[in-house]
Design a protein that fits this description.
Blueprint: E1 2-10, H1 16-32, E2 36-52, E3 55-67, H2 72-80, E4 85-93, H3 102-107
Antiparallel strand pairs: 1-3, 1-4, 2-3
């Protein structure tokens, strides 16, 4: 199993309930693809560097996951079909970053 860090940018128009459903759906997708989520952080509603689908802000959610690298493309394909997820990013790492991250400190 490889270690990855993932960031999801979720539509700012999402209600709290819909936001939680999207996060739960992502977690279920990881588990169904033989992965494990080791840590998460909620970075909250943040400004985007540039507009995405006419949105200037998005909810950021950070995950540390362990999964076989072959499954990342399958997961990305599923995430692309969800209109509430504006962007997603998976980065393969040797070691997970210590929590809390710098971005989480900036939020407070």
């Amino acid at each position: 199993m490889n270690k990855f860090e993932a960031v999801l940018l979720i539509s700012p128009e999402s209600s709290d309930k819909l936001l939680e459903q999207n996060i739960k759906s992502f977690e279920d997708i990881i588990v169904k693809n033989a992965g494990k989520i080791t840590n998460t952080e909620d970075w909250g509603l943040r400004d985007l560097s540039y507009d995405i689908n006419n949105f200037k802000k998005a909810f950021y959610k950070y995950f540390q996951i362990e999964i076989n690298g072959d499954n990342i493309q399958k997961i990305a394909k599923i995430l692309n079909q969800n209109d509430n997820i504006l962007r997603h990013l998976f980065i393969k790492v040797n070691q997970h970053q210590e929590l809390p991250t710098k971005l989480n400190h900036e939020k407070n």
